[in-house]
Design goal:
The complex is a heterodimer of chains A (299) and B (317). Chain A is 65% helix and 0% strand. Chain A is an all-alpha fold and 299 residues long. Chain A is elongated, with a radius of gyration of 24 Å. The radius of gyration of chain B is 24 Å and the shape is globular. The chains are: A mainly alpha (299), B mainly alpha (317). At the A-B interface, helix 5, helix 6, helix 11 and helix 13 of A face helix 1, helix 6, helix 7, helix 8 and helix 11 of B.
Chain lengths: 299, 317
């Protein structure tokens, strides 16, 4: 378009671009993240509608269908060692795994944000104590700690969520603390303090809202981590208990049936990988969209 | 420097103290407690259970038990295994070599492949290779290690029959290095995948940062050959922050090793931990929690010290 031609165009009214618009357009440019968002949506939908897709009861045992291969005897993805439909089990397991993932994320965020805020607000001795506690929790290899906890509680959806959250809050606490410590020195906080705002008000109204971006990113990544951890624990036999299916416990005995029924071992792992990869990419895309400085180091 | 070291060591000691407190209360406050395994036996009479509880000192107040455990821990007496009565320290150190071999080989693979991929990705940013490598790395970070191991066994041991499905060596055969290496390929490869992904991501990010520095542009302007700039000027500086990655990665590597060892019946510490949970072998569990945490804390301390030593811009104080 030539300069003269451009000048012919009527001037658009000057309107500042809305931040949410910028964030959205930046997010849409991150293709893997967009694809992941769609995949997550589909996974969520299929889990929510698992019972209404005409797939049959995931717990229905039919020994005549034992190890039916994919596409045989009306089983799209085959049947397992008890003749149960693998596809139906996968979708129902998705309910459990996604629920644990999302619930653990919510609890993780609450604990992490609360401890990070307390650390940054009180500083001094409280901060030092909390930092050493964080160091201590980070020193345990995550699976060791989780297994030790999981082995001694009655396994259920609630207890799985609780122990995953109890061993995952450290990163968010660190990030929130760091962000708040740097924010509290900035002019708008000094200004608010000058206007007589109380400490609690500054925390809740001025500091916390400014950490929403990093919390959103960390929360998305922590869903991925929680789904992965749940699968480890359930695979090792200390998580969600049969006959209830989770992606992890569907792989419990897979090793023994490898030679005869590889599909029993393949599909649950594909689902875990798909879900975890999607949440990781989504977190990546959110980070790029919310933090312009990160765009360059995308990867 | 000496002051810094003293402070860091003191901090590490405090952290380890907290680690032991957390681990101890965790294991002892669990339902049933350490005597649960005996209580489950159908032939166990109530008075025998009482006697065992007393003999193991489990009837004492928790803080007394902790103090006596801590005193033992510091003097090298980590208690005896409930399972076979052997010394805990001995049970654990028996398993250290297998885990070390596994972790070191995975680490070597990861550093070599990860650095190579990361460098190429950074030098050719947004190229097809870069997009492929970064996406693959993300998938690798998301695959459950146990499933990756299972698939490895399925493809290489069952379908192709080129690699053994597990164990550290052929059962019953005498020790031979080729046999050991043969058995190492799948487990080390499995454990290495996640680490390769991490190393390539960090190398890429670090290289991208360094490549934009003025001294790199200066080197180019002086007419230094492209390869020399990348390897002599950029890589050297990009590697510095990666030193800490080796330390930071340790907890995750221990976790990955636990799962890998379980899949491949590898006689390392991770499998010992899983087995000990099955047997409710509290002294060994506590010992392993402390042992791994100790290594993690030490690893981070060493990484930070090395970082300070090789980067003159960092002043440890």
């Amino acid at each position: 378009m030539s300069v003269a031609h451009a000048l012919d165009q009527p001037m658009a009214p000057a309107r500042p671009e809305r931040l949410s618009r910028i964030v959205l357009s930046r997010f849409l440019r991150h293709r893997p993240a967009v694809v992941s968002a769609v995949v997550i949506l589909l996974l969520g939908l299929s889990a929510a509608l698992a019972g209404h897709l005409g797939l049959g009861d995931p717990l229905h045992i039919q020994m005549s269908h034992r190890f039916a291969p994919p596409l045989a005897k009306g089983h799209l993805l085959g049947a397992d060692e008890l003749g149960r439909d693998v596809l139906s089990r996968l979708l129902h397991a998705g309910r459990i795994s996604l629920t644990v993932g999302l619930a653990a994320m919510a609890v993780t965020v609450v604990i992490g944000a609360a401890l990070g805020t307390v650390s940054a607000y009180f500083r001094g001795l409280v901060d030092a104590a909390l930092q050493r506690l964080t160091d201590a929790m980070l020193s345990f290899p995550p699976i060791y700690m989780l297994l030790a906890l999981a082995a001694f509680v009655r396994p259920s959806l609630g207890s799985m969520t609780a122990i995953i959250a109890a061993t995952s809050w450290m990163d968010i606490a660190r990030m929130v603390r760091g962000q708040m410590l740097s924010l509290r020195e900035q002019e708008f906080v000094v200004g608010a303090r000058g206007l007589g705002a109380s400490g609690a008000r500054i925390m809740a109204h001025h500091l916390l809202p400014n950490t929403v971006g990093i919390i959103a990113v960390a929360a998305t990544l922590s869903v991925a981590r929680a789904i992965l951890l749940e699968s480890y624990i359930s695979f090792l036999g200390y998580g969600i208990q049969p006959p209830l299916a989770s992606w992890g416990n569907m792989l419990n005995n897979a090793q023994s049936y490898f030679a005869s029924a590889p599909w029993v071992a393949i599909f649950p792992g594909v689902m875990i990988t798909l879900a975890v990869t999607s949440f990781n990419f989504l977190g990546d895309g959110l980070r790029d969209a919310l933090d312009p400085r990160h765009v360059e180091s995308r990867g | 420097m000496r002051q810094y070291l003293a402070r860091r060591v003191l901090q590490a000691a405090v952290v380890l103290g907290l680690v032991s407190l957390a681990g101890f209360s965790l294991l002892h406050l669990a339902p049933g407690g350490p005597a649960a395994i005996y209580a489950m036996s159908p032939t166990m009479a109530a008075e025998d259970l009482d006697r065992i509880t007393r003999e193991l000192g489990l009837d004492r107040p928790l803080h007394v038990q902790y103090l006596s455990w801590a005193r033992g821990f510091l003097t090298g007496n980590w208690g005896r295994s409930y399972r076979d009565g052997r010394l805990v320290l001995e049970v654990i150190t028996d398993r250290v070599p297998a885990t070390t071999v596994l972790m070191l080989s995975a680490f070597t693979v990861a550093v070599l492949l990860g650095l190579a991929a990361g460098i190429v990705s950074a030098v050719r940013q947004y190229s097809l290779f870069d997009h492929l490598a970064t996406s693959l790395a993300m998938v690798a970070l998301s695959i459950p290690t146990f499933w990756l191991g299972l698939m490895g066994i399925y493809v290489f041991a069952i379908l192709l029959r080129v690699l053994p499905p597990g164990n550290i060596g052929t059962v019953g055969a005498e020790f031979s290095l080729p046999d050991r290496l043969w058995h190492l390929v799948l487990p080390a490869g499995t454990l290495g995948v996640v680490m390769v992904a991490t190393w390539s991501r960090y190398t890429r990010a670090s290289m991208l940062e360094v490549i934009r520095e003025d001294y790199i542009r200066t080197a180019h302007a002086k007419g230094v050959a492209g390869g020399a700039v990348i390897f002599k000027h950029a890589l050297k500086n990009a590697l510095i922050p990666l030193v800490t990655l080796a330390g930071l990665q340790l907890p995750l590597v221990f976790s990955g090793a636990l799962v890998t060892e379980t899949i491949f019946t590898w006689p390392g510490m991770g499998r010992l931990f899983v087995d000990s949970i099955g047997y409710r072998d509290y002294p060994v569990l506590m010992g392993l929690l402390m042992f791994t945490a100790l290594l993690v804390v030490l690893g981070n301390l060493v990484a930070d010290l090395v970082y300070g030593a090789i980067d003159p811009r960092v002043r440890l104080s």
